[in-house]
Amino acid sequence: MMEHGSPGRRSVSWAQVLPLLFGLIAWIFFWYRDTALAMVAIWAHGDTYAHGFIVPPISLWLIWRKRHELALLRPDPTLWLVLPVLAATTFWLMGELTAVNALTQFTFVLILLLAIVSALGFRISRRIAFPLGFLLFCVPVGDFMIPMLMEWTAWFTVLALRATGIPAYQEGMQFIIPSGTWSVVEACSGIRYVIASVTVGTLFAYLNYVSLRRRLIFIGVSIIVPVVANWLRAYIIVMLGHLSGNKLAAGVDHLIYGWLFFGIVITIMFIIGMRWSEVRPATEPLPVPHITPPSPTSGATRAWLVTTGVALLAAAGPLAFIVIDEADGSAAPNLARLALPADWNDATPFTNWKPAYANPSVQRQAAYSREDKTIGLYVGYYRNQDYQRKLVTSTNVLATSSDPIWSVVSRNRAEVNVDGMPASIRTAELSSKDITAHRLVVWQWYWIDGKPTASDTEAKLLTALSRLRGRGDDSAVIILYAPQESAKEALPAFAIQAIGPINQMLDATRAAR
After folding, report:
1. What angle do CA 298, 300, 306 make, to 5 degrees?
2. pTM score of the predicted model
3. What are φ and ψ of residue 375, in 5° steps?
4. How many Å apart are CA 271 and CA 500, to the nearest integer?
């Protein structure tokens, strides 16, 4: 009886392929060791992604369960995945050039998966598709959802409080009720619950259901349930604090009640899910081949060819980064002098607010005035960016949620028609909690190698292209701000006159690298 496989293709033995596969995996880990260690560091230092430690063992266990089935198949190395490996390596390089953790770590895992599939072939890989795909849960990604989840949590909590007769005044992530003031911070977003639920829910769906429809439904439920559970958790915690005179659900109790409530909800979800579990149909054993084994020499040659091709392409990205990074090295910048616009003079700072941008290479903050209008300017300039110093990151914000004085109460976009500025800029309104109780209106955008943009994605792309062209990674954030009562007239008036001198200052700093 013929072995299942493509006509004319010569499969190879496990004894030939496994040493090459393990060597290829070790090779990839060698070249991407910094990316792998960065993933482990995130697992170790954050509860949100601690599940990353158990994902690889679970994947190995799922593969081990199929060992008898896999033993009846022969590996069939394929070169069809050479182009996807090249694409993944290219995306890793783009992520490394711009210090995007999520992109580099995702493509690292993807390169590993493509290498495994290339070495084993499609027939075997199809039978372990879920265990391989489950490895993607190693990637610590999800922080981008935090602002949205925070907004949803604040909205629901205030809505539920009002529905139960408790007056609530909301402003941004903060709301006030008769018994005190509450804030929705990053820990209240529920991202930990969502990621934990989706990871475990996906595994549960694979082990307990057979039909794709039921699996997808349960995975969808495992996404929705923790979001709603977090809303209820936030409401219950506020109610406990309100009814107890803020003696309960504060400090550590806040977290303990949260995880306890989440554990109960998820347990109920799994108990209900078990009611619709399906019994896997008995599978017929695969036919054992009775033909003469293929030529060991030709099979080994193809396995070596595939392994070598994937290994060379996988190493191309890190090698290219080393070359580009060494060529980009430059001394720390000094911001050139800013030529003040006509009629604007240096002024005494009118606020103690400062954007929470970490580790800029150099920064400048000043105030300017003309007649009765006062403007603040902040420029954060970045050069030789890495994972500790980078312009575009979720931790660079106008005000952190833990800031004791300042909070962002609204965010928006504004269309502008000023040469040298992006067509659309970010705007925000900040509120002060100090005795002055004043507000600021903020305009914000980026400058990347002479090009203005207000998009994080475009900023990252422009930075990568600049580095690929050998022009370095010089970038800056430009922030204009003014008191709320005068911002409508002052911000456009200053921007029209100041954008030219600001861009000249940045261009001169870039030219002096």
Report:
1. 105
2. 0.87
3. -130, 145
4. 64
